Amino acid sequence: MTRSRSFHNAVVTGACGGLGQALARELIAGGARVALVGLQRPALDALAALAPGRCAVYQPDVSDAAAMQAMATDWMNRFGAPDLVIANAGVAGGFDTAQASDLAVMRRMLEINLLGVATTFQPFLEPMRARGQRGALVGVASLAGWRGMPGNGAYCASKAGLIAYLQSLRAELRPTALSVHTISPGYLRTALTAGNRFAMPGLLEPDEAARRLLAGVAAGTEHIVLPRRIGWLARLLGMLPARLHDRILFGQPRKPRVGEAGATEIPGIHKP
């Protein structure tokens, strides 16, 4: 029996692939009703087919508050307020401040990675609180949010902002039965890392990451690093003098920018 069996009604954004798909599969296998939120209909339909009576498919832009409200209303009309909401949808890509076209990339990344978490949580917050029962709000951040990295400013900024937002929300909800969980993955074998041209120590498979994440949330762990040893490595690097730390990172290959070979697609951004 997996720890995911302790959740009965879940919402997962970014459920089309990678970590989101692995989370959805784990929750479905555990018997939960799952709202599958993403942009790739075939992948979502394949997941829903695993438990047709317990799943529903939605394709909103997570940064669109009205679309997310409509999704939440439909789901709760069918199955009631969730006890688990996982804001997993996210995008990644290299960034160069000197390039005017990259400003649109940064804006879109902030809309999806940061604003998209708030628009995911907002429609469910009051209904979950009104239940008076335990519930969990999970935001998938990144170790990249712990410190800025050369050529990755937009992504790092979006994840650092997300970590701070989750800290604020956690403090606000302390008096309630709702918990807030910050997930900081290192490198997962997903489409977002497939084009990386640099070393990825501790590369973790999505299925294993999903199991660890759900077990940690079920146990009440507020800060979850995947895998844990990479968190220690990041902390050790963070103890170096800033100039030395930056020199080490500056020599590493950069994450591909939109339009470059190996770059992942960012919805709403067209390749030049």
Account of the 3D structure:
The protein has 8 helices and 7 strands; from the N terminus they run E-H-E-H-E-H-E-H-E-H-E-H-E-H-H. The chain is α/β, with parallel strands linked by helices and 272 residues long. The chain has a single domain (3-250), classed as Rossmann fold (3-Layer(aba) Sandwich), CATH 3.40.50. A 7-stranded parallel β-sheet has the order 3-2-1-4-5-6-7, sandwiched between helices. Helix 1 (18-29) packs across helix 6 (206-218) and helix 3 (65-79) runs parallel beside helix 4 (102-131). The longest helix is centred in the middle third of the chain and has 30 residues, at 102-131. The protein is globular.
Question: Features of this protein?
Answer:
272 residues; alpha/beta; Rossmann fold; globular
* Number of extended strands: 7
What is the name of the CATH superfamily?
NAD(P)-binding Rossmann-like Domain
Query: Over all CA atoms, what is the radius of gyration?
Result: 18 Å
- Quaternary state of the chains: single chain
- Per CATH, the class reads Alpha Beta
Q: What's the topology here?
A:
Layout: E1 9-13, H1 18-29, E2 33-37, H2 41-48, E3 55-58, H3 65-79, E4 84-87, H4 102-131, E5 135-140, H5 153-172, E6 178-185, H6 206-218, E7 223-226, H7 228-238, H8 242-250
Parallel strand pairs: 1-2, 1-4, 2-3, 4-5, 5-6, 6-7
